[in-house]
């Protein structure tokens, strides 16, 4: 699968980095699932716990834009459910960026500067009228 991701990158270059990023996420999640289940697909081992149970589609926000990925799922095991760590890390970092931007906006950084930061992360902010008063922090 890594070869397919690299072939896509070679063929489309930086114009389609979001797709490459999404496919890399999927590959990472497959590896995580194999580690969680303690076996490769269709492999019988004495350590195996549960089995791969397909994929579900999920949209995630990345620095390269919003991409749709197939999230690996598991079934047939006891205890803690499988959730790819790579998705959790991404969710936390996006949340952290949004909180940081909100904080700098409240502290009085110009809207233009906040929008520039958000563009760096592939996000758009709603346009704020220059005459619109800011709410002061309580």
Q: Quick recap of the structure?
A:
The chain has helices spanning 2-12, 17-37, 85-106, 111-120; strands spanning 51-62, 65-75. By secondary structure, it is α+β, with helices and mostly antiparallel strands.
Strand ordering within the main sheet: 1-2
> What would you report as the Rg, rounded to the nearest angstrom?
20 Å
Strand content: 15-25%
The helicity comes to 40-55%
Sheet bearing the most strands, described? 2 strands, antiparallel
Please mark out the parts with pLDDT under 50 across 5 or more consecutive residues, or reply none.
none
Order of helical and strand elements: HHEEHH
Q: Helix- and strand-based class? A: alpha+beta
Shape: flat
**Total discrete domains:** 2
Write down how many β-strands occur, each being a DSSP E stretch of 2 or more residues: 2
Give the end-to-end Cα distance, rounded to a whole number of Å: 52 Å
Average pLDDT reading: 79
* Tally of separate helices: 4
């Amino acid at each position: 699968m890594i070869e397919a991701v690299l072939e896509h990158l070679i063929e489309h270059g930086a114009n389609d980095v979001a797709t490459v990023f999404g496919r890399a996420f999927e590959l990472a999640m497959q590896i995580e699932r194999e580690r969680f289940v303690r076996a490769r697909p269709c492999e019988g081992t004495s350590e195996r716990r549960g089995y791969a149970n397909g994929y579900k589609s999920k949209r995630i926000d990345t620095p390269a834009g919003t991409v749709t990925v197939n999230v690996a799922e598991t079934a047939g095991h006891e205890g803690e459910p499988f959730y790819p760590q790579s998705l959790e890390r991404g969710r936390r970092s996006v949340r952290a960026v949004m909180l940081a931007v909100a904080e700098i906006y409240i502290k009085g950084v110009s809207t233009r500067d906040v929008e520039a930061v958000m563009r760096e992360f592939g996000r758009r902010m709603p346009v704020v009228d220059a005459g619109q008063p800011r709410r002061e922090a309580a």
